[in-house]
């Protein structure tokens, strides 16, 4: 019976492209996210934003703050609050690992993207990251430009 179930492709709903520029990304984690029904419907529409969001820990739980999931228009009074804190579903080991890095090394936990996996479940990709200074950002931009130019030269030459 499981063979008959149609496999869904991984659909990215929200991508935090700015995080790759502002932070030096380290280890990544995949976390489930506890959502209301109207939030899932809204995510399937593909209009969420995680650009200004961050992850924090309260009493052994990981919480996603400031992620914007717009209201589902057909839900009327049963709708959700667009920027409510949402619980992330991680193992205790993973939560401990995240917060040890935050406390000991002064790093931060940044959400990179929200997507639906092959089973159709909403997931959040998190990364342990270190903030970049302005000069580091300029250096990273230069390296990225040089890598692009190098690829272009190699393609034209060969």
Automatic annotation (TrEMBL):
Gene name linked to the record: smpB
CDD domains assigned to the protein according to its UniProt record, in alphabetical order: SmpB
Main location: cytoplasm
Annotated keywords: Cytoplasm, RNA-binding
Region (Disordered): 133-158
UniProt protein name: SsrA-binding protein
Subcellular localization: Cytoplasm
Biased composition (Basic and acidic residues): 136-158
Family the UniProt entry places it in: Belongs to the SmpB family.
Primary role: Required for rescue of stalled ribosomes mediated by trans-translation. Binds to transfer-messenger RNA (tmRNA), required for stable association of tmRNA with ribosomes. tmRNA and SmpB together mimic tRNA shape, replacing the anticodon stem-loop with SmpB. tmRNA is encoded by the ssrA gene; the 2 termini fold to resemble tRNA(Ala) and it encodes a 'tag peptide', a short internal open reading frame. During trans-translation Ala-aminoacylated tmRNA acts like a tRNA, entering the A-site of stalled ribosomes, displacing the stalled mRNA.
């Amino acid at each position: 019976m499981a063979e008959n179930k149609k496999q869904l492709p991984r659909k990215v709903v929200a991508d935090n492209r700015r995080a790759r520029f502002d932070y030096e990304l380290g280890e990544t984690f995949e976390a489930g996210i506890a959502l209301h029904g109207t939030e899932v419907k809204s995510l399937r529409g593909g209009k969420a934003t995680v650009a200004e969001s961050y992850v924090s820990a309260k009493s052994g739980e990981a919480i996603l703050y400031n992620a914007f999931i717009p209201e589902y228009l057909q839900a009327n009074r049963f709708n959700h609050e667009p920027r409510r804190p949402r619980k992330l579903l991680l193992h205790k080991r993973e939560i401990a690992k995240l917060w040890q890095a935050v406390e000991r090394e002064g790093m931060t936990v940044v959400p990179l993207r929200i997507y639906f996996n092959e089973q159709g479940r909403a997931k959040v990709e998190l990364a342990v990251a270190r903030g970049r200074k302005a000069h580091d950002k300029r250096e990273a931009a230069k390296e990225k430009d040089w890598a692009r130019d190098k690829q272009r030269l190699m393609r034209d030459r060969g």
